[in-house]
Each structure stands twice: as structure tokens, then as C-alpha cells.
Amino acid sequence: FFFFFFFFFFFFFFQAEDGIRDVERSRGLGDVYKRQNWRVSVFESRNIPNNLCSAFGITIKEMSDIVKLDVTHSNLSMRMPELKFDRTQSVASVKASLEKRVGTSADNMNLILKDSSGNTVSTLSDNESSLGSYGTQDGYILHVVDTNPMSITKQLGEENTDVPKYKIEEDKYQAREDTFAKFKEKNPELFKGKGKPKIDDEFEADKAAAIKIDNRCQVLKTKARGAVKYVGKVPEKAPGYWVGVLLDEPLGNSDGKYPNLLNG
After folding, report:
1. In 10 A of CB 140, how many CB atoms?
2. 141-194 residue pLDDT tens
3. Strands 66-73 and 141-146: what pairing?
4. For residue 130, is pLDDT > 50?
5. Coil, helix or strand for 239?
6. 68: which of 50, 82, 111, 154 fits an S-S bond (Cβ 3.0–4.6 Å)?
């Protein structure tokens, strides 16, 4: 039994090793791993030694070749943010890719490269040149100009004002029973308190009576401090009582006195 086990182990082991070393195709275990095809998608390659990549036949696409651009269109108000492009691809390839996104034919497409502020950097006029040769950077704008006057994008981008809009006459509208106005009449409880609240002319009069001129105070919204210079009504603003404040810091537009506070 021991002899049989040793013979089996020895034969199997060297049969597998033979598959690794043999130039010809072999059915050994090592040959299975040796003949694997390696495919690697786009990823960061700086941590992978070059000799290891060449040994396994791995082709690396550097992340520095990828650029993110916003895409705009001459006939459309849309803006496609941060579309990824390869700096090494040709302008013709970029146009073919954009044709599927914006609907403009590549043959009727001009591309203008703009910086993030919208200033023109270059016109991509050579279809054979690479995208990166025009100084493309992340955050730049790729503006598509559709040169076809009959383009579908032109029709989509323009508001059609030639179509007459239907407008019902007032008496016919009032005669109908399925309008919102009639629904509101029949269900007034559903709309109570929905309008703008009415402010009484004596609103907060009791609080105003407790405030004296030259009292120190602090504005709740801005936390700025100052002295009270007016307590009373400001009909030009709104009903109720108002308080005018002269701030300690050089802020605001008036001295807090009426009618000067109308400038604030």
C-alpha cells in the first residue's frame, strides 16, 4: 500500500510539473494556469510593477488618460455633467459617442472646448487629432454646435408659438360644474386659513407699550446690538407696531428713526 501511494504521488506531481515546463500544449495542471488570458479594465496602475505586468501580458490604461467634461448643446438647454472621455481618443470618436447622447449627427457636429468659466479654449476642428492635444482638463465644457438647420434638436429646443392655445370663455367656464372654482365653492371648509393671514392694525401694541426710547436691545436674526430709536406704526411697511434700532456697529441703512427707517 505504501509503495502504491508513493508511486501515485510521484507520478502525478511530476506529470503536473511537466505541464509547466513543456513548450507544447499539455493537459497538466500547471498548463491550465499558464495559458490563462488576463484582461484588466481601467484602474490605478501605479502600485503594480511594470515587470509583473509584462510577465502576465497585462495592458494598463492610466487613470491620467481619463477626463471629466460637462457637455452642452447649441439647440438644447440641457447640461450633461462630468461625462468621462479618454484623452487619447480622436475627435471623430468623441463625436460618434456624443451623437448617441445628444441626437446630433457626427457629420453635422462642431465641438468647442471651453474652460469651467465658459471661455472658449479651442475649436476641435481636426477629426484625427486626439482630445488631449487640445489641452483638455477636468471640469472643462465640451460644447456641441449642431450645424444642420433642419436638425431635430433645433425643433426640440424651440418653443412652438404657432400652435393656437385653447382658451375657454368666462361664461362657459362658470356654467361648468367640474371646475376647481365650483369645487372650492362647495367645500369652503377645506380652504379655511389657506390665504394670507390678516394683520390687525393694533398688532403687538401691548409689547410695543413696554419698550422705551433708548432701551438697549439685540436683533434676534443678526445678533447685532443697539439702542431703540422709534416705537410705533409704519403704514408704508405693514399694519401693526414697529421698533426702529440704531445699531452700535456701522450696519444698516438708517438711524432707526421714522421715517428714516423706511430706507432699511
Report:
1. 19
2. 999 999 888 887 776 655 555 667 778 888 888 888 888 888 888 888 777 765
3. parallel
4. yes
5. strand
6. 82
190: buried, middle or exposed (CB in 10 Å: 19+, 13-18, 0-12)? Answer: exposed
DSSP letter (8 states) at residue 252: S
Predicted TM-score (pTM) of the model is 0.40
Name residue 227's amino acid: A
Burial 47-59 (b: 16+ CB within 10 A, else e): eeeeeeeeeeeee
CA distance 237 to 199: 12
CA distance 133 to 31: 44
Is the CB of residue 261 less than 8 Å from the CB of residue 230? Answer: yes
| d(C-alpha 48, C-alpha 67), whole Å | 22
- CA pair distance 219, 216, nearest whole angstrom: 10
Rounded CA separation 79/141 (Å): 10
Task: Report percent pLDDT > 70 for the chain.
Answer: 68
The pair phi, psi for residue 204, each rounded to 5°, is 60, 35
Q: How far apart are CA 51 and CA 100, in angstroms?
A: 40
Of residues 50 and 255, the one with the higher pLDDT is 255
Measured distance CA(38)–CA(49) in Å, rounded: 16
Are 58 and 130 within 8 A, CB to CB?
A: no
